[in-house]
Write a structure and sequence with these properties.
Elements: E1 3-8, H1 12-24, E2 28-34, H2 38-47, E3 53-55, H3 58-63, E4 69-72, H4 79-88, E5 93-96, H5 103-116, E6 121-124, H6 131-142, E7 148-156, H7 168-185, E8 189-195, E9 211-217, E10 222-228, E11 236-243, E12 247-249, E13 257-260, E14 263-266, H8 272-275, H9 277-293, H10 301-320, E15 324-325
Parallel strand pairs: 1-2, 1-4, 2-3, 4-5, 5-6, 7-10
Antiparallel strand pairs: 7-11, 8-9, 8-15, 9-10, 11-12, 13-14
Bound molecules: NADP nicotinamide-adenine-dinucleotide phosphate.
NADP nicotinamide-adenine-dinucleotide phosphate binds next to α1.
Length: 337
Amino acid sequence: MTLNIGVIGTGAIGRDHIRRCSQVLQGSRVVAVNDINRDSAAKVVSELKLDAKVYDNAHDLISSPDVQAVLVTSWGPSHEEFVLAAIAAGKPVFCEKPLAVTARGCKNIVDAEAKHGKRLVQVGFMRPYDQGYRALKQVLTSGQIGEPLMLHCAHRNPRVGEAYTTDMAITDTLIHELDVLRWLLDDDYVSVQVVFPRKSSKALPHLRDPQVVLMETAKGTRIDVEIFVNCQYGYDIQCEVVGETGIAKLPEPSAVQMRSGAKLSTEILVDWKDRFIGAYDVELQAFINDVQAGKLTGPSAWDGFAAAVAADACIAAQTSGEVVPVTLPARPGFYGK
Ligand code: NAP
């Protein structure tokens, strides 16, 4: 069976996911597209030679009988409205992060999905689908390094534009760690603190960069995440787990090792799209397969909500400098243990 997908938002990641669904992955085709800028949607249809209808209104796309599943890749503040509409229509929906721009918005989605009675939402957190993180989780689950005690992580980008603000280091950057580390440890955060080292001269005046986020989980694991978005040298994701009997480290992406000019070197990637290209393919293929099997298993609306609650606490901690509690309500049984 081929799954007929409708895509809302044909910007950078929307175009990339449309290419994926129509050219790379198995079992899906894009039959409908919408963007607030109609020309952008029409351009994607013609560039990718899609047999797809351009909708002027996202709600008409969602309710169309031609559309069996919805991809929401528009800008963040529009996600909640479209995901709620997909749930109301009883259609599976893959929503890019953030699920909603506030924890309250995420909770509205959790409540609507629980009321519907069946999982319909997958959030576009792709790191749990990355080969390296999966290998790391396998080591932790096997017990080879004992219980995890501490994590040392880094999220570094070469540089960011003028529109990037200090709180976006949490909502746009750290948000991926907030999701993947919960998944990796099978644990929830209980408190966060943010400290600011000496500011880099490469950061624009309005931006505090780098910053270090310190987190504690319910089981007592301590996590430090360095966010440094003007590091200049490349896009670099690090994660080292210190366990009771050993240390496990996220593998580096594979790269050719060179001996040249009296140096031994390997290249470092500079673009996040290249670093996680495999993970994006696997996450969307999993969504397509799960929809066809009638049971979603990827990052849930609850995961989107939990990440948003932790992000809110981090933003409060940026301002106060204090340790801020992360308070999650009890997880509805609907989302498993
Ligand atoms: P983008 O290039 O700005 O694309 C967003 C598109 O949505 C634009 O074409 C925009 O049109 C359109 N849009 C805005 N409001 C809309 C509405 N109400 N209805 C329909 N279309 C609307 O942004 P992007 O980089 O693709 O990011 C899109 C989302 O994906 C964001 O939430 C972002 O955080 C997420 N994302 C996730 C990852 C990841 O690693 N998982 C990576 C990149 C992006 P205009 O340009 O005319 O406003």
